[in-house]
User: Fold this.
Amino acid sequence: MTANPAEPDPLSAVPTKADLHKADFSKHDLSKTELSKSEREMLKAIYRHTKDGAEAHTSDLADTLSISPGTVTATIKRLDERDLVDHKPYHGVRFTDEGLRTAVSAIRRHRIVERFLSDMLGYEWNQADALAPTFEHELPDEVLDRLFVALNRPATCPHGFPIPEKEQADLPTLPRLYDLNAGDVAEVAVPSSTDPDIISFLEELGVRPGVRVEVKEKHPFDGPLMLLVDGKDRTLGERIARQIYVRTTRNGAADPTEKIKTKSSSKTTTPSTRNGITEKAKETKP
Assistant:
């Protein structure tokens, strides 16, 4: 049987070794390639240090990720090449619009995997946070989506922080427990960076992620909070209450109206200070 000359040979589309040598890879679109583990972790760290509007320094990121300042700079440079951040040496780095969305997406990925480790494998919430980065970056997006559905679309991670929707470019802002007043009801969220001794103390009081608390009384002049936790009266000092975040509730449901207005900058506009990261100069002690 003779081949139909009108049909192209399927093997003709396969590039030869000579074609590969001639190919110009210098114009490859880096922004569309998969992010590495170190790049995702850097985006998460940048967001963490700037979520309250404060600046993050190279040394702060190095401490958070347990890497050298030089590695921080090199990773930020790669993110800049991908148009995810706008980096100006010694002046700072800011998210682009796409970079901000990518950072929130990385946080979403982390929180879903945390929930899987906690709900399906039985890890404690603080253990899940440490284990999640060991494999969360290897999961294809389709697997992550199926995992989210299998977990019944959880609203929060095991720490009590919201899991953002896909393509979401901001995260709900959570007030601190000490910001509440008498009569307020909220669900507890505890950061993974909380001191282990404080976590143990909170466990003794029953103040753990996801638990509902009601403020019965707030003493003036930075005085303690009187809380109702699982039907029991508890007292919490100002210093510790400021380290705990809460999801305020309305009629027993989380309040969806509290949002943080995230800002980003493009390379063609004047950058804002919302997501700025400045290179911290070396300080000399007298």
In short: Residues 177-254 form a domain with the SH3 type barrels. fold (CATH 2.30.30.90). The first helix runs from residue 17 to 22. Confidence is low (pLDDT under 50) at residues 7-32, 256-286.
